[in-house]
From TrEMBL:
Any Pfam family matching the protein: Nucleoporin_N
Nucleus as UniProt keyword: yes
Protein name: Nucleoporin Nup133/Nup155-like N-terminal domain-containing protein
All residue ranges annotated as the Nucleoporin Nup133/Nup155-like N-terminal domain in the record: 73-519
Family that this chain belongs to: Belongs to the nucleoporin Nup133 family.
Single annotated GO MF: structural constituent of nuclear pore
Record flagged with keyword Transport: yes
Highest taxon listed in the record's lineage: Eukaryota
Native species: Digitaria exilis
Gene3D superfamilies in the record: 1.20.58.1380, YVTN repeat-like/Quinoprotein amine dehydrogenase
UniProt xrefs under PANTHER family: NUCLEAR PORE COMPLEX PROTEIN NUP133
GO BP: any one term: poly(A)+ mRNA export from nucleus
Composition skew (Polar residues), residue ranges: 45-56
Length: 1293
């Protein structure tokens, strides 16, 4: 219906004639299994089933269709995915042999979410996983006779059956089918609905081993006749189902009738409850079934991740003119109500499809689909039109895309008319076929729409006559591709998309045929094989432009392919349409292809003759060296060599021959790739690539690495198969029909098949061993699907065995690749800044996932016996080595590039420490087990140490190579081997001091200071550098080194340390120093300075003594000050300015302490604090009553001796003696430099602009006018009298 008139083989014209009674395909002849017992698991005894089994069909295939392919680049034909299981074939043959009449005798479909295909033949329902390369484990369910309908009813067409499948335990989209690939079934419920009779059957769990119960629900129409039951008013148009969250095997289903009524089915293992939805309420199932104008067409769920509002879900109903939005509560008695509607066919052309325009007679909304994100609604529309010129009628098919507004708020009031617009037009309707023949309504309403496949934006339309047409708007026009096979494949029953293995939204289109199994439509087939929509009108026979026939279309180029294709005149009209000129991208694609063809020809000539024939000059002229990376011509050629798909490896001969065929094919690839490298060297292309395109040359060499690894992996698999066939396995292992490596190969091959639909006709193992360049996919599967390879539900010994097998495979693969790199190192380009494949994130993530699982498995008590644990431990050590080496390679490249790598370094260190720690802990268990086996009942420490050293030697080497200092320290500590420790400290010199600093830190944290200092004897510079922030220990090391002056400075600094937390990074055990401890340290510092006797040691000693005086003064000041006598002032040092300010607030004694503090400070401190010093003189003056002293001395007539004696008791006299007496203890200069005594002294010293004198300071005092002479007399007398000779005399009050 949707296809243009494309030329087909003449034999295909027999399809219509043969369709009514097709001949059953003969069963394939049986073959006995090999008596030698060597067999590939899950391989059929007859090899891979052919895409068809009928010899007559095989004979009708054009030979051009069966040419062997060397690759997948030119494949634009449908690709065979899976054959029907044999039980389905047998049922089909049996049904046809009974001469059952009718065209729609088979019904089938594909469930997108679970990748399960189903087919109904007679009274049996078959369900199987169509993605398995070999269809097996097909489930057969008997369809009850009550579902078939009344005996008097018309024969039931196959299209009247619908199956809904629910996976009770859903998982992530990227891995939801992995278990099925390995034949591990998840609990799954199935609803089977007879849309004609409305009968429903429900299987709560089709994979249940026991109690696979069946629940039935009949419509219960009472005495109605069969003709009434079969009438349109009682059939279902569409049905959808969903699991009830939080319940056990409960689900709901919603169905719509053509009359517009909705039915709700609540299914559980106990039964099915059927209720009719009338508007916004539920009514009894026996409600009136009279027709109305709603015309329910199609139902679709809004994806749960979009519509989830608590337990509510939204679904949409397409009617004859609108889209209705409904909401259902899955937990609260399944309350269902309509919450909105929007007109699709109306008078507003901007918001909907405009009706009643000229030439338009009728509009049908046929089907609706919602994308996985719930953003786009696609509606298939058919419009009956009248040609105003010829007067003939025709049908126009179009696709309307609407955007859903997620933020739309619907009214909660039932009385409100709910006509809110929640859909907006994305673009004008896309015309699929402008003019097609007029169909009756039954044919129109049998059409179904599917979305989400590749190419992006394409849709597939299934019609009731069994055709499938892919439509896509591409390069400014709509293109159509009709699925067709060159033999009679029967009708297309259903279509879906192949789930992506990487959680991507889109997959290739896949169709279920009636006779030929399941086929996929490659993306390139749609783009290259599609044609523009034909223009047909039934008013004339044939095509309206049938007179002009274009036999050959011009070459069409897209991407990197140039594929000529024949098309009918309906595709391109000669003279009316011009081919577009080649764009810049297309021109570059042509140049690339010409260069690749030239390279292949030159290489072919080299293989034959050994001559290069000026290849470098020719290739350079052809632009072969212009692309870098994967797009480089040489890289693409190398990739095609290692990825070549050989002929199908299936055979009816011995399995040993099959295994040798795989190996020989890989060896042939290796030899050809080596030839290619020789060609590059002899032609000097290697020199060009190595110097100018290093990344491309590295990729070419990596192809050789991967190929070498794949060959060794295949040898390992052969050895494992031989081992299984020749050894006696444990009871637990006997239940495992396949090994873990086989499961891994299946998953990797399946991932490649899903992502590259052209490989769907190949087996998983064949794809795995062919796609050599994509070996990173193996590690991707380890990272994302390890739970399917090694199930935690299996016996612990089985888990250990399977983990051992997978780990061995990874190590074998990587080691073989690294060995190839070592053997061919002279072929490689300079490695600066280049990242190798084994350092990629996907590889590191896969190895880490496996290593993490093994660590968890080995950490479980009683998981397996110690011998198996020991073997697995050895493999974990190998995984650790290759993972850490990958990190080192990546870090080196990032450092050379100048890229940021801080996060990567942290990840590397964390994983290194975790791996080495786990390895070492288990190694001690292995050592203990071996020691118990070896000793003769008596303790033998020497034997135990010998075993210990032998077991931990690989861990020691890895830890030493990767700076695993914690593990190295633990090993040395457990061995108590100081010789080994010192050797490692000498060898392990890394950043931040290397292993030596780590050892020092551990000793400090454990307070083993004596051991630390003993190591300082051998590691003098290292320990001195480490202790540069640890003054409390550094001085001891310096004393040992006879560096007394340095030790004195260290002690001096440590004694005056202000904060106890300044070295918290080194240790957290530091305590604040008391005054007594500080004084002791200062004495030690003085002794060390005296012992060192440097040239300036006198200055050092003087400074130490001054600090000792200040320390003593603080003790005294704090004792005299109750407010300051707190804990913090008894340990922490105060600044001299703080001490002086404390003295200014107190009595006579403390006022003098302030001058003593000034005397013990440096001259710079006194100079910068002149104002504070002046305040001290003013405070000292305030301590005595000078006016009274002056008055008494005058009234009583004191002699000079009596006045002098009285002045000696004043604070001014005492302060003057402390500061200015000839033998006063003043550190670093004199007070005369800062504050001279007399005013004239300031002028004599030239300090007019810098400071005042004591006299000038006292002149500011309020009592100076009355007693100024006495004040100055006291100051001058204190300056002239010796400080030690004068005794203080108290003033007589």
């Amino acid at each position: 219906m949707f296809s243009p008139a494309i030329r087909k083989p003449h034999l295909l014209h027999r399809r219509d004639r043969d369709e009514a009674s097709p001949s059953p395909p003969p069963a394939a002849p049986g073959h006995t299994p090999s008596p030698r017992g060597f067999a590939i698991p899950d391989r059929p005894t007859t090899g891979t089933p052919a895409p068809w089994t009928s010899s007559s069909l095989l004979a009708r295939i054009s030979t051009s269709k069966r040419t062997d392919r060397s690759g997948d680049s030119d494949q634009i034909q449908p690709v065979h995915v899976a054959e029907f299981p044999q039980v389905v074939r047998n049922a089909q043959a049996s049904l046809l042999q009974k001469n059952f009449s009718g065209k729609n005798i088979f019904a089938g479909g594909i469930d997108k979410e679970t990748s399960l295909a189903w087919m109904i033949c007679g009274n049996e329902l078959f369900i199987w996983n169509y993605l398995a390369s070999v269809a097996k484990d097909c489930l057969v369910l008997e369809v009850p006779s009550s579902l078939i309908g009344h005996k008097d009813a018309n024969p039931l067409p196959g299209i009247q059956w619908t199956v809904c499948i629910m996976r009770w335990h859903s998982s992530d989209a990227s891995i939801r089918n992995s278990g099925e690939i390995l034949h591990r079934k998840s609990s799954t419920g199935v609803i089977l609905c007879n849309k004609r009779t409305q009968a429903v059957a429900y299987w709560p769990d089709i994979y249940a081993e026991f109690n696979r119960s069946l629940v039935l629900s009949s419509p219960g129409y009472g005495d109605m006749s069969a003709s009434d039951v079969a009438s349109d008013c009682f059939r279902f148009n569409s049905i959808i189902a969903a699991a009830v969250p939080g319940s056990i095997r409960k689900c709901i289903a919603i169905a719509t009738e053509p009359a517009g009524a909705l039915w709700l089915f609540q299914c559980s293992p106990e039964g099915i409850r059927r209720e009719q939805v009338n508007g916004d309420t539920l009514v009894d199932g026996g409600a009136d079934h009279s027709l109305n104008s709603n015309g329910g067409r199609s139902l679709a769920w809004l994806p749960s991740n979009v519509s989830a509002e608590g337990s509510d879900r939204k679904f949409f109903l397409l009617t004859n003119n609108e889209v209705q939005c409904w909401s259902i509560s899955l937990l609260h008695e399944n309350n269902i109500k309509k919450i909105g509607s929007q007109e699709i066919v109306g008078t507003d052309g901007d918001a909907s499809i405009k009706k009643d325009i000229a030439g338009q007679k009728n509009i049908w909304l046929l089907d609706m689909q919602i994308d996985e994100h719930g953003k786009e609604f696609s509606i298939l529309v058919a419009t009956l039109c009248k040609d105003r010129v010829s007067g003939s009628n025709y049908t126009q098919y179009s696709l309307l895309t609407m955007l859903y507004n997620h933020n739309q708020k619907f009214s909660s009031e039932d009385s409100v008319v709910k006509v809110e617009r929640f859909l907006e037009k994305k673009a004008p309707s896309q015309v699929i076929i402008p003019k097609a023949r007029v169909e009756d309504e039954d044919s129109l309403f049998s059409m179904r729409l599917k979305t989400g496949g590749k190419p992006s934006g394409s849709v597939i339309i299934l019609s009731g006559d069994g055709t499938a047409t892919v439509a896509i708007y591409w390069r400014g026009s709509t293109r159509l591709y009709k699925f067709d096979l060159p033999w009679d494949a029967g009708k297309v029953l259903d279509a879906s998309i192949i789930p992506s293995a990487e959680d991507r939204d889109e997959g290739a289109w896949v169709v279920l045929t009636e006779k030929a199994g399941i086929w996929a439509i490659p993306e390139k087939a749609v783009l290259v094989g599609g044609v523009e929509p034909p223009e047909r009108s039934l008013s004339r026979k044939g095509s309206c432009n049938e007179a002009v026939v274009e036999e050959k279309r011009r070459t069409q180029v897209f991407s990197a392919s140039v594929v000529p294709r024949r098309a009918s005149s309906e595709a391109w009209s000669a003279g009316e349409r011009q081919r577009p000129a080649l764009t810049g991208i297309a021109q570059q694609a042509v140049v690339d292809e010409e260069s690749e063809i030239l390279l292949n020809r030159l290489f072919h000539d080299f293989i034959i003759s050994g001559a290069v024939n000026e290849a470098l000059h020719k290739l350079r002229a052809a632009g072969a060296f212009e692309k870098e990376g994967e797009m480089n011509i040489f890289v693409r050629t190398s990739k095609s060599i290692v990825n070549t798909l050989a002929k199908h490896w299936t055979t009816t001969r011995e399995a040993e021959f099959l295994a040798s065929t795989i190996v020989s094919s890989l060896v042939e690839k290796q030899q050809k790739h080596q030839k290619f490298l020789q060609f590059l060297v002899l032609s000097k292309c290697h020199e060009e690539l190595t110097s100018k395109q290093r990344a491309a040359m590295l990729t070419i060499m990596e192809h050789g690495e991967k190929l070498s690894g794949i060959i060794q992996l295949r040898e390992l698999q052969n050895a494992l198969i031989q081992q299984r066939s020749s050894t006696h396995l444990s009871p637990q292992l006997k239940t495992q029909s396949t090994g873990a490596l086989w499961n891994l190969i299946q998953l990797v091959g399946e991932k490649a098949r899903r992502n590259t639909v052209l490989l769907m006709d190949r087996e998983n193992a064949e794809v795995f061993y062919s796609r050599v360049s994509d070996i990173e996919d193996l590690f991707y599967c380890l990272s994302h699907q390890l739970q399917y390879i090694i199930s935690r539900e299996e016996h612990p010994s089985v888990q250990v065995q399977r983990a051992l097998e997978v780990a061995t495979a990874c190590i074998t693969l990587v080691h073989a690749a690294l060995h190839y790199r070592k053997e061919h190192k002279e072929w490689y380009p300079s490695p600066e800044g280049l990242i190798t494949w084994n350092s990629h994130l996907v590889v590191r993530s896969g190895i880490w996932s496996l290593a993490s699982f093994i660590m968890e498995l080995l950490g479980e008590s009683g998981a397996a016996d110690m011998s198996m644990k020991s073997n697995l431990w050895s493999q974990l050590e190998g995984l650790t080595d290759i993972l850490l080496e990958a990190y080192i390679g990546l870090l080196t490249a990032k450092f050379e590039r100048g890229d940021e790598h801080g996060v990567l370094v942290q990840e590397y260190c964390e994983r290194r420490d975790e791996l080495l720690g786990s390895l070492y802990n288990l190694a001690k268990q292995i050592v203990e087990a071996k020691y118990q086996e070896s000793r003769d009942g008596t303790d033998n420490p020497g034997l135990k140490e010998s075993i210990f050293r032998g077991v931990i030697s690989p861990i020691l080497a890895t830890a030493k190579r990767h700076e695993g200092y914690q593990t190295l320290w633990q090993i040395c500590s457990d061995l108590n081997d100081s010789v080994l420790l010192r050797s490692l400290m000498h060898d392990s010199v890394g950043p931040h001091g290397g292993f030596s600093f780590f050892v020092f830190k551990e000793l400090v944290n454990s307070r083993h200071y004596s051991k630390l200092l003993r190591l300082g004897e051998e590691f003098q510079e290292e320990l001195a550098s480490f202790l540069k922030d640890r003054s409390d220990l550094l001085w001891l090391h310096e004393i040992y080194l006879n560096q007394f002056s340095s030790a004195s400075e260290t002690l001096h600094t440590y004694a005056l340390r202000g904060s106890p937390d300044e070295d918290a990074s080194v240790t957290t055990s530091r305590k604040p120093l008391s005054f007594a401890e500080r004084r002791r340290l200062l004495y030690l510092s003085k002794i060390a300075a005296t012992a060192g006797k440097d040239m300036d040691y006198d200055v050092k000693v003087a400074r130490i003594e001054a600090d000792m005086r200040i320390l003593k003064l603080q003790e005294e000041i704090v004792q005299h000050d109750p407010e300051s006598a707190q804990v913090k002032y008894t340990t922490a040092l105060l600044d001299p300015s703080e001490l002086i300010e404390m003295c200014l607030k107190r009595d006579q004694d403390l006022s003098l302490k302030a001058f003593e503090v000034f005397a013990s400070t440096s001259s710079s401190f006194r100079s910068s604090n002149r104002g504070l010093l002046e305040a001290c003189w003013m405070n000292a003056t305030n301590q005595d009553d000078w006016v009274k002293l002056s008055q008494v001395s005058t009234s009583e007539g004191w002699s000079d001796e009596v006045i002098q004696e009285s002045l000696q008791g004043t604070v001014l006299f005492k302060a003057s003696r402390i500061c200015y007496s000839p033998d006063s203890l003043v550190y670093d200069g004199t007070f005369e430099d800062v504050l001279p005594v007399k005013k004239e002294d300031v002028h004599l010293r030239g300090l007019e602009t810098k400071c005042l004198s004591v006299e000038e300071v006292l002149m500011q005092h309020k009592d100076f006018p009355d007693a100024g002479k006495l004040m100055m007399a006291a100051v001058i007398m204190g300056k002239e009298l010796p400080y030690t000779a004068a005794e203080p005399v108290e003033m007589d009050t």
